[in-house]
Amino acid sequence: MFKKIRKLTTTxxxxxxxxxxILVGTLxxxxxxxxxxxxxxxxxxxxxxxxxxITGSGxxxxxxxxxxxxxxxxxxxxxxxxxxxxxxxxxxxxxxxxKRKINLYERxxxxxxxxxxxxxxxxxxxKKIMIITFTVELISTGLIMIRTVPAFGLLNGFWQxxxxxxxxxxxxxxxxxxxxxxxxxxxxxxxxISIVLSLEMFIGALGFLVINDVFSSxxxxxxxxxxxxxxxxTSTTMCLVAFVLIFLFEKDYTSEGLADALFNTISGNAxxxxxxxxxxxxxxxxxxxxxxxxxxGSPGSTAGGIKTTTFVVLLFSLLNxxxxxxxxxIGNRSINKNAAKQASAIFFLYISAIFIGTTxxxxxxxxxxxxxxxxxxxxxxxxxxxxxxxxxxIKNNTIAKFVLTILMYxxxxxxxxxxxxxxxxxxxxxxxxxxxxxxxx
Length: 441
Fold this sequence. Notes:
Helix content is 64%, strand content 1%. The chain is mostly helical.
């Protein structure tokens, strides 16, 4: 059996590993004792919930606090955490705990899963990932408890804080707050919650490689890798611009309005929590949220989207095309031409997934609003979880639920990885076809 696994590519191992975890999660959550109604849950609904949890998407068919009991909530939180740290990181951590050596094959899989450049030093990175994850989550839990314990009591307040903290860092956007599909509107205008969760979500969306690079360089900008510089500049700039736009578009020029604009911007970039009802926001604000959801976080992070580095490479490729430059240069460094090709492929595949998903869902139910379905598909494939209410309307629509489930899975492993599951062999370039010019634009 292990020899057959070794024949799989690392890409296939990661993709199939997530499928295996989804099946395990489905078995843990499908039984009647996992929900408050003590009834069997539709298998597709359970799969949808587990996929949403492990991919960090955050779209839900049932209100988590209302439908699932404490056992069901623990299962969901467990798979949010697994999705946050990564399947291969979890497996390797268990191996390290049992004092088992990580072989080269596993190092390569870890390298791809964690977004590292080379297999050397990957074991040390795994340890750092675990330390960073639990440290950030514990600190955040303590700070959130300042609000939740007085409101809900010690035990319930601790559970609320822990769930929100883990869900924030793992950019899942699922909560167990009272009320039906209220998300974090209970904390509307709360500066403490806005700042704590915004920082946690922002750190989670940066990626472990960037966080490790910042610590290794002791915060010195010149010592950072180009990858880290691109991520930090792009993430900060994008969030600042979106924050200003949403604050202006919502026209709530109060302290509470400022806090909500900050929180919903950072959350829209990666997580999917909301402190105000998204459907009540202006159309311009929804458009800004859709755009930052599409870009998403960074490679190796808990966030989805096409990724900030892909966005930057695409942007510089466009500038290069306009100037007809033969080399792609970013920050006084030449970028491999294959990076531009891969960025273009990622962009096209994400757009295609959104278009195809939207078309199928609209065909399955003509009563759904097109803008709502587009927003939902963007949220699903980019693993964010913000919703205009479409997910709650498709409980009886098997086709729509299946499509969103597939989109969430594709968003987690990446569309390029999805394609490579079928064909993972690269062209060796031994056969070169004749060259001919074609007109473009």
